[in-house]
Amino acid sequence: MSLIKERKTVCRRPSIVSIVGARPQFIKLAPLSRRLREEGFKEVIVHTGQHYDDNMSDLFFKELEIPEPDYNLGIGSGSHGNQTGRMLIAIEEVLLKEKPDLVIVYGDTNSTLAGALSASKLHIKLAHVEAGLRSFNRDMSEEINRIVADHLSDILFCPTETAVENLKREGITEGVYLVGDIMFDALMHFSKISETKSKILERLNLKPKEYYLVTIHRAENTDNYERLKNILTALSQLDIPVIFPIHPRTKNRVKDYNLESLLEKIQVIEPVGYLDMIKLEKNARAILTDSGGIQKEAFWLRVPCITLRDETEWVETVKFGWNRLVGADYDRILSAVKNIGPGEDVDFKDEYSAEKMVGVLRELKCKAVINL
């Protein structure tokens, strides 16, 4: 009998720090975190506190069945420089303590930027979920955030072929993976749950397809008096009820600009949880929004969307006729509402993303085998 110990190849599971801070990132985190933990990966969740009130943060963690964050940095609001700087300091302390193999950032917020910069400066491998998106409008802080994150990342998880092509044009071809959109995983999972758990239509006395749903939160609209006034003026002219879960920043700007009178014919409500939001989206006649995530959800739910921006990184939603770009133009908004209709029928069956991303991470880690 040989006395030589058999050598085995063992794939060690990496330790991961996931950095989130805003509501859309919680949605993206939920399915990937669940799958990582099922695979036995060690995950530490860092919540920067960018969205910090209960409706914008705690409620989402509960509804999405995400584990309590291991760190809540409590950064809160502030100017871009102030907020990002404080995040950098706090995230660096966490990364120095945890010493992860990989940092994962999501989307295009200041939390994304701070997480990417912190990991890069500490020479920790970085993965960007939702890489390669481009609006080609550098006046948007989100565009700067996503560009910087992509150029710092070692692993780039792209939701669409367009995103892959965008990266290629910028010279990024290594570490790029087309995996589909992680928000689709979350929407499909929680859409069924919302049918029984959400009672939002009953609470608001709404009938399916007899109201419009509105969300406004981007600085290009909220921090521009003329744009916000034009949008709210158009909304006040619509022919059926308008439901408007108002973002805290938007609420403050409406007050600052003395535009409260334009809300008199609009049903303004506080921000709602994810299950209620899905229920509202599914049953709206149309959605008017400046949110990238809601554009996609409307597309997947086959609800016409009118985007209150001049461009979109989600070009497929426009290509297939489910989304119209109207900016903040009063006449274009009203015309789009008057002419709303369904787009092309699109098959989404291969969109599930979390398993693909975990598969990539598993393969990459196993290439650096440990011999016992």
Tell me about this structure:
- With 372 residues, the protein is α/β, with parallel strands linked by helices.
- The chain has 16 helices and 15 strands.
- The chain is globular.
- Residues 1-9 have low confidence and may be disordered.
Short descriptors:
seven-stranded parallel sheet; alpha/beta; 372 residues; six-stranded parallel sheet
Secondary-structure map:
Elements: E1 9-10, E2 15-20, H1 23-38, E3 42-47, H2 58-63, E4 71-72, H3 80-98, E5 102-106, H4 110-121, E6 125-129, H5 141-152, E7 155-158, H6 161-169, E8 176-178, H7 182-197, H8 200-204, E9 212-215, H9 219-222, H10 225-235, E10 242-245, H11 248-256, E11 267-269, H12 274-283, E12 286-289, H13 292-301, E13 305-307, H14 315-319, E14 323-325, H15 330-338, H16 354-366, E15 370-371
Parallel strand pairs: 2-3, 2-5, 3-4, 5-6, 6-7, 7-8, 9-10, 9-12, 10-11, 12-13, 13-14
Antiparallel strand pairs: 1-15
Helix pairs in contact: 1-7, 1-16, 3-4, 4-5, 7-12, 10-15
Averaging pLDDT over every residue, what do you get? Answer: 91
Largest sheet: 7 strands, parallel
Helical percentage: 40-55%
Strand content: 15-25%
Strand order of the largest sheet: 4-3-2-5-6-7-8
- Quaternary state reads single chain
- How much is the radius of gyration in Å? 21 Å
Shape: globular
The strand count comes to 15
Low-confidence stretches: 1-9
Number of helices: 16
Secondary-structure content class: alpha/beta
Please report the distance between the alpha carbons of the first and last residues.
20 Å
